Amino acid sequence: MSLSVLCPLISRERLERGELQQILRKLASREYTIPGTRRRHLSAKTIQAWYYAWPLHKLDGLTPKVRADRGQSKVSAATQAAILAAKRDNPRRSLCKIRQMIEAAGTLSPVASSPARPSTVCFSTACCR
Predict the structure, then answer these.
(1) What is the pTM of this model?
(2) Coil, helix or strand at residue 48
(3) To 10 degrees, the CA torsion angle through 78, 113, 96, 102?
(4) pLDDT tens for residues 7-65?
(5) CA 54 to CA 4: how far, in whole Å?
(6) Which of 2, 5, 61, 95 fits 53 for a cystine, CB–CB 3.0-4.6 Å?
(7) Helices 77-89 + 95-105 axis angle, to 10
(8) Kind and range of the H or E run holding 75
(9) What pLDDT score was predicted for residue 85?
(10) Contact 44, 27 (CB under 8 A)
């Protein structure tokens, strides 16, 4: 599928200045049949990533890669348990209130291997502003 999308780009020997972005926008505006999903559009950024991967890796660069962290949560088991307990205790309790409660209790912590800050791992800070 990615190769058929790239054909208008990789079949060209040379692109003029600004032509790449123009073609990317045109390709992104089209509808596609994407196997395994109901999505119909690709972003220009995705197509551009494929375009730059093609000369380096050919077909291997276009095949989807399985994420190394697939199925793993960035939230520690203790934090998950605290969130669930707070919600079970009061189902109407807001996400913001739950966050405040577990921060105050010192339970809010990411998985040890996660480089992200606890507040960004668990909850968006935008809801509590």
Answers:
(1) 0.50
(2) helix
(3) 30
(4) 888 888 888 999 999 999 999 999 888 888 888 899 999 999 999 988 888 888 778 78
(5) 12
(6) 61
(7) 130
(8) none
(9) 92
(10) yes
Least confident of 7-16, 78-87, 88-97, 102-111: 102-111
Q: List, as one string, the DSSP characters of 47-115.
A: HHHHHHHHHHHTHHHHSPPPPTTTT--SB-HHHHHHHHHHHHH-TT--HHHHHHHHHHHT---B-TT--
Using CA atoms, how far apart are residues 17 and 46, in angstroms rounded to an integer? 20
DSSP 128: G
C-alpha distances in Å from residue 55, one per residue of 42, 62, 64: 20, 11, 16
For 94, residues 6+ apart whose C-beta sits below 8 A from its C-beta are 127
pLDDT at 94: 92
Using the structure block, give the residue that is written with the tokens 């998950």.
80
Q: Which of 26, 17, 18 is nearest to 47 (CA)?
A: 26
Nearest to 108 by CA among 77, 66, 72, 85: 77
Angstrom distance (rounded) from CA 96 to CA 100: 6
Q: Is 42 left (phi over 0), alpha (psi -120 to 50) or beta?
A: beta
